[in-house]
Amino acid sequence: MDEIVIALMSGPQDGAVLTFETLLNSGEPTEITIGRREGCDISLSYDSQVSREHAMLIYDGEQFWLEDTKSTNGTFIGEEKITERTEVFPGQLFRVGRTWLRIEPMITFTSSDMDDLPF
User: Fold this and answer.
1) What is the mean pLDDT of residues 87-103?
2) Which of 32, 35, 51, 62 sits CB 3.0–4.6 Å from 71 for a disulfide?
3) Hey, is 24 helix, strand or coil?
């Protein structure tokens, strides 16, 4: 099983880590919604610069893509405003509203990993 880990790097939740399971077994990419709305996968309700449905992070099994979903204030990778679906790499900072986020390196577990546990 693979997990996507997103770290919040600023704001009142600075240091928080969010974990999402990939949906690759279904044959579909994993889509993580980011916005101010409570129903978003990553809800940044405290950030007034974030649109209700601001951006989407997509993992296709090999690469991460960041897409602005017609937000008012834009989505940035580093200091560059993105205007189309753009590749984003683990460890690279991206910004939604005033909040900086980062994708952590992927963690992959297999059943053989369980055999190596000391307990």
Assistant:
1) 97
2) 51
3) helix
Please write down the HEC assignment for all residues of the chain. CEEEEEEECCCCCCCCEEEEECCHHHCCCEEEEEECCCCCCEECCCCCCCCCCCEEEEECCCCEEEEECCCCCCEEECCEECCCCEEECCCCEEEECCEEEEECCCEECCHHHHHCCCC
Burial 26-39 (b: 16+ CB within 10 A, else e): eeebbebbbbbeee
Environment class of residue 72 by beta-carbon count within 10 Å: exposed (0-12), middle (13-18) or buried (19+)?
A: exposed
Three-state DSSP state, 38: coil
Bridge-based pairing of strands 86-88 and 64-68 is: antiparallel
* Verdict on whether the full-model pTM lies above 0.90: no
